[in-house]
Amino acid sequence: MSRILTMARAGREALDWEMERRPEIVCLGEDVFKMGGIFGTMDGFGAKYGPERVISTPISETGFIGMAAGAAMAGMHPVVDLAYIDFIGVCYNVLLNCASKTHYMSGGAVKVPMTLLIGTGGGYNNAAQHSQCLHATVAHIPGVKVVYPSNAYDAKGMLHTALRDDNFVIYLTHKGTAGVGWMGPPIPTTLAEVPEEPYTVPFGRVKVYREGTDVTVTGLGMSVHEALKAAAELEKEGISVEVVDLRSLVPLDREGIMESVAKTGRLVVTDEDYLSYGVSGEVIATVAERDPGVFKKPPVRVTMPDIPIPFSRPLEQAVLPLAGRIADAVRRLMS
Amino acid sequence: MATDVIIPHDLWEEDDKTGSIVVWLYRDGSTVRQGDVIAEVLVEKVTLELVAPASGVLRIRVEPEVVVSKGDLVAVIE
Amino acid sequence: MPLTPELRRGFWRTMCLSRAFDDAMIALYWEGKLPIFQFGAGPLPGELHCSNGAEPVGAGVCAALGPEDMITADHRPHHVAVARGVDLDRMAAELLGRRTGLSQGKGGHMHIYDPAVNFASSGIIAEGMAVAAGMALARRLQKRPGIAVAFIGEGAANQGAFHEVCNMVGLWKLPVVVVVQDNEWAVSTGKRESTAVERNSDRASAYAMAGEWVGTNDPDDIFLAAERAVARARAGEGGTILELRTARLAGHFMGDQQAYIPAQMKQVDPLPLYREKLIRDGVLSAEEADAIAAEAKARIARAVEFAKASPWPEPAEAMAHVFAGEPA
What we know:
The structure holds three protein chains of three kinds. By secondary structure, chain A is α/β, with parallel strands linked by helices.
């Protein structure tokens, strides 16, 4: 196997395969017919499947995401492209009170199988309203599955899984990892050999990118790749870092996290989302609840601080959880 | 027999613009089929696809992030 | 106010200044970003949505406003900001992320705030609708003069916020002018593909607002319509949906090839048309028109120089300004 794909291409392949076989799948979103969604996940689908199944919508998120939920309840499996996660503010009620809660409130009588594709993250100087991660904001809602692949192999496998799930799944991709040209050349660790045939990657399992013995560094989305850069640097200093990609927030592989930290005894949690009330605290709580005795040193969080993301390049670079900050945190734990 | 992989003259409109390969979708030495998308080419902010003109073994001659013009040889398929 | 030659020369000056600003920013934008596109590279990183083609909207509407009036703009704010008199040096510095910028580099080009001239913008579609209505409500409660103007695009008129706010403006007769800038395209989605009515001004009747439509992208016509809307608002007669047909000559954002625009829908640059009109009407000679344009370019060149010579913010400044009442 020698074919290498970007995350964007891998995701497109999964959606295309499912759409070819399952008429209940329809695509909705702004500009999806002509432009194929933020990462081109639906690139060329307009011509291939026609305007009935690839529906460009007005800028009416409350309306079309609510309609996706309704169509799901009526037997379809809508796939909605919401471009940037910053825009969930417009349609949050659908996520918060409708698509997430209907199955429960109906006592299991009504299913809402829909997949929401959203881009996250900053690092490209697009300021406070177009650079957020907000994955904790959606993962906090009971009744939503939230997955976050960080490489092309997982991008394809997890999208197949999402499209075959009977639930509301939010499928996140950090803009910087997708491998779309407008974000610059792809990060090498996001590229992967991807089989042409379909396959699924189950939700709720961490992926150990790199095994190590001294420190566990957890990440998700872009911060996985920053952690990998840091780990490569630290290896030269004789520090062995285990890099664990959470890749699925709901369900979260708590045992997988515990297993790694029990081995290394030291934990650095990286997250491009805001520091407080988020995934970084959840990871540490996961270990502390099971056995705080495994910590040789108190765990450290390397995240976006609790500030709106600044526009100016030196300001944004200073607050992102980049490899340098991660490596410093690891060194402090080892000293 | 080897087939040159060149940047097609109709890949983008303006002749004076340059691009660059952002990613090879097959490793050097891989077997490719005619019609496979083998690389992505970025011109300004637009991503374009480079298609294999023949089947065979791909020999990459131009690495990503090197500036290329229309007509440049970027690989050979043996 | 009659459409005096002086006023019309002012429109030309404002339009030239706005165009010069955008042209300068476009040049800065591409600096350092090629051959391999990188958002973060060059003096002006991030996304950039330029106003080329929409200059008559800013010039015509803002000329009908007084200093007490309040403005919200959207992700494409430059033409309104320039026409409103936002500080050009500090706006340029903000786009370049410098400490001397309007927001000390915190906001960038979509988030322009200049309280000295009651100007604010936001990158979220239709967000400014409710904010403008709230500003108008505040002035009513404070018994102070001042109306509010929300500048949005035709795509934003399909947001829930648009319809909720229009209803309240109509219900409470709030002094609000909603300027719907119809440049025909919401990214790649044409108005006919997204909007159930031909004109958003027709939607006014559903909300007990006045509706006006101007199809010329000419600042004279825009000014006169805006003046009528502003007069109604000041007189307590309530709000107006003022839809203005305009143009988006530089794409949705930088790098947008606009391949989705069919040849027959190619848009016209309003600047040469207005220049010709002023010369034809004897308001300006060709030399005078070109002198004004050259002066505008020189003014913007000074703003760019100011911005480029300005210091970067210190990294620690990222932590300041989250809350009011704390030391910066």
